[in-house]
């Protein structure tokens, strides 16, 4: 069975094969129903392996050529330059490659998955941008890696997939202060919260701004709020608010 997935109009128009998978179309049960691909979760490993195999099939690669990372909320981006690296899961939060036949994957459950491509150069990348990585510059590091492989920023197309939306992400004043310390322009991504010391934060708009600031003019958010749509998406924040012991993870992937 091929699980359903969301695509970016920009990436599709550029002829780039990619997928933002939802939580639907897998075999996991309970909290993890159904397409949980989180190797680090407490789900049945056999179910996770089957779910990942279904994602790989949808992308037209074998499970061994689905390259994942041990994500650490960093700004670190690596280059995948041989297929054997796909099974290594190094610690980082982004991949870039010019290698055909390998899908670069990141996992999220509210954080922003960012897929990027320069089709003319034959370079693609995938980044996991939680607030820490986004603020520290994971997209900037990803663009630098892509450039090293021959990509050009004025040709790069980028898409942010399903992530926590601006009406679901309430933070405190100290959180806002971190972003304002990096740039006062970040104030536009915060608005008053339900209490005087709370703010609503627009993560996808912030990531789009970071891409634009770095020279990427073709970028979009696919528009889905993971926290608000339980039927389609896993959500770390929703699980935390309910006191759930764990939560599933979704995959976003891209390939040449």
TrEMBL record:
UniProtKB keywords: Hydrolase, Metal-binding, Transferase, Zinc
Top-level taxon: Bacteria
Catalytic reactions of this protein: adenosine + phosphate = alpha-D-ribose 1-phosphate + adenine; adenosine + H2O + H(+) = inosine + NH4(+); S-methyl-5'-thioadenosine + phosphate = 5-(methylsulfanyl)-alpha-D-ribose 1-phosphate + adenine; inosine + phosphate = alpha-D-ribose 1-phosphate + hypoxanthine
Name this protein carries in UniProt: Purine nucleoside phosphorylase
Pfam families assigned to the protein according to its UniProt record, in alphabetical order: Cu-oxidase_4
Gene3D superfamilies: CNF1/YfiH-like putative cysteine hydrolases (3.60.140.10)
Organism of derivation: Peiella sedimenti
Family of the protein in this entry: Belongs to the purine nucleoside phosphorylase YfiH/LACC1 family.
